[in-house]
Amino acid sequence: QKKINYYPKCPQPELALGVEAHTDVSALTFILHNMVPGLQLFYEGQWVTAKCVPDSIIMHIGDTIEILSNGKYKSILHRGLVNKEKVRVSWAVF
């Protein structure tokens, strides 16, 4: 399954949320992006913005791996934010 997320420029990004906080039901999620920051992960009680590394693919663990590993590997809570100056696009493959 593939999901394409389009986040238009937003003059007041603090008032908008692109995608609400969630975990993925899949085993693994692979994310391609257009190098515009906005993916945030909930880590140690706070939201952390993922770094944009050129030519990289982001991969995170979903609910299925957490269940199959009996909790050894945790599904990551994440969300998507809009950007004030640039359009953000991400392609998630589950």
From TrEMBL:
PANTHER family: OXOGLUTARATE/IRON-DEPENDENT DIOXYGENASE. It holds the Pfam family 2OG-FeII_Oxy. The gene is Ans2. This is Anthocyanidin synthase. One of its GO terms (molecular function) is metal ion binding. It comes from Helianthus annuus (Common sunflower). PROSITE patterns: FE2OG_OXY. Residues 1-94 form the Fe2OG dioxygenase domain. Keywords: Iron, Metal-binding.
